[in-house]
Amino acid sequence: MNISAIQTFLTVVRTGNLNRAADQLNVTQSAVTARLDTLEQALGAKLLTRSRKGASLTKPGFAFLEQAEVIVRSWENARARSSLPRGVTRLFSFVCHPSLWTGLGEEWIAALRSRQIETAIEVWTGLSSDAARWLQSGLSDAALLPEPLNDPGLESRELLTDRLVHVTPHKTHHKSRDRDYIYVDYGPAIRAQHAQILPADETAAVAHSNPDWALAHLLAHGGSAYLPERLIKNHVAAGQLHKISGTPEFTRRTHLSWRKSSEATFPWLADPKN
User: Containing domain of residue 155, as a range?
Assistant: First the structure.
């Protein structure tokens, strides 16, 4: 089975069109068709329904999609490990939840890089479901997530705490501005605590799953939001944001999960000092 055929399949799925896939891959449409034909013949199943309007997955195509992603990621990982820079002896593959990168994941990786100079690092963004799949398949070594992964073969420990504070661009906060409240979804635990302090009839008009996006919206349009202190400390120091007094704060725990088998290569994963 040719890796280029699988990469072509994924490109067609992503673009939904053979012509667009050919443009992205810098090949002809006939080459895309030939690769797909070869892949379907090797698997003995029709993966895509192709027409002039585009291409859509068949039932076997849906079943193969996840495996195709794993195969391509494994290939990319193997290629990266076989071409490490001089002086680097190993590759650490790290997954970070998108809401935890700014001021948290990035600082942890920077500190790690300064201590482990012989280690190359690749960082992927992913949700808990992505991280669990990538760790179990061996594509990644560790992940920084809002909740621990308790799957077989994985270990977890609490890494850091995220302090969430209520902030606004206005120097004086008025109750009338609550209609501009921006809700940030930090997961089930914080969601339950949040529901206790905000009545159901005062739901936010705008909601985000990523605090970075919520911060950008807050700075551009005003309102108020609960944001990680690590994310807004510079804005508070510059007078762009102000903490709202008299409102509760939340603490969100963050967790490092890793493949137990990776401890042999990266023993510091289990060290609470790191």
Answer: 90-159+254-270
The answer to whether 32 and 18 are in contact (CB under 8 A) is yes
Local confidence pLDDT in tens for the 274 residues of the chain:
578 788 888 889 988 888 888 888 887 888 888 888 888 888 888 999 988 888 889 998 888 888 888 888 777 766 666 666 665 567 888 999 999 999 999 999 999 989 888 888 889 998 998 888 888 877 788 999 999 998 888 999 998 888 999 999 988 766 555 678 899 998 888 888 888 776 544 567 788 989 999 999 999 998 899 999 999 999 999 999 999 888 888 999 999 999 888 888 899 998 887 7
Instruction: Mark whether 137 and 258 lie in a shared domain.
Output: yes
Distances (CA, A) of 171 to 131, 205, 226, 245: 40, 22, 16, 11
Tell me the three state secondary structure of residue 86. coil
Q: Which stretches of 92-228 are DSSP H helices?
A: 106-115, 128-137, 188-197, 211-221
Identify the CATH number of the domain in which residue 195 sits: 3.40.190.10
- Are residues 244 and 166 part of one domain? yes
CATH of the domain at 11: 1.10.10.10
Judge if 124 and 145 occupy the same domain. yes
